[in-house]
Amino acid sequence: MSTDERVLRHYALNDEAGRLWTTARGTLTRLRTWDIFERFLPGGGRVADIGGGPGAHASRLAALGYDVVLVDPVPQHIDQASGVGGFSCRIGDARSLPLPDAGFDAVLLMGPLYHLADAADRRLALREAFRVLRPGGRLLAEVIGRHTWIVDATSRKLLDDPGVWDTFELNLRTGQSNDPGSVPDEVFWAYFHRTEEVGPEVEGAGFVHERLVAVEGFAWLLGDLEELLGRPESLLRAIRLTESEPSMLGVSAHLMAVASKPAPGPH
Fold this sequence. Notes:
This protein is α/β, with parallel strands linked by helices. Helices cover 44% and strands 19% of the residues. One of its GO terms (biological process) is methylation.
């Protein structure tokens, strides 16, 4: 089964909208992503939400006045997002976008850089993002950290599960979430980045990499997360204090690269 087929299979079996809206960890991811948007996106304009799933982020940005186009390869997601309203939706692949050159003030890559497990495919996705972004525009690109599954499995008390230590070894050695030749089709398939890989990968597509920030930070591991999310403002403020601390980046489930497309210099 190819990577593309595995992605389609994963989302056919898992409710992405439900994860972001009905679970404590998903809610944390969503709120922190919106917090990052508020601080790092331009104040308005056109946004391409590439791999935008069922439209959680697109709907938020559309409500704030952005002109949003969502592109996703999963037909189920396009159906869900189309039902939300307020933005346009197109089925498409991050490696070959059905979008015009330099047509957007910001591009979001909230899934392609980890679902595309092959480095060549990630380069194509980043180059496509570069192509459709206007000079001076902003890229926000999300990755999964190299140690995420080790931390997650430990917190979920899975250390005695058969094969889990072999999976950890594979994660650390290759960055691959699982061995495609030895796992069921429904197992999550992704690439886990080391923190030091992200900037060079983004810069290799022509962007200026500005910073790397933790999305969930340490907070996704808190036992009282659901209670804290009842009043999220203080929790979000605490995460901001550590979001760029190098010694803490690796504990976050997701990391966000903030980058820009260089604007032409004066003649």
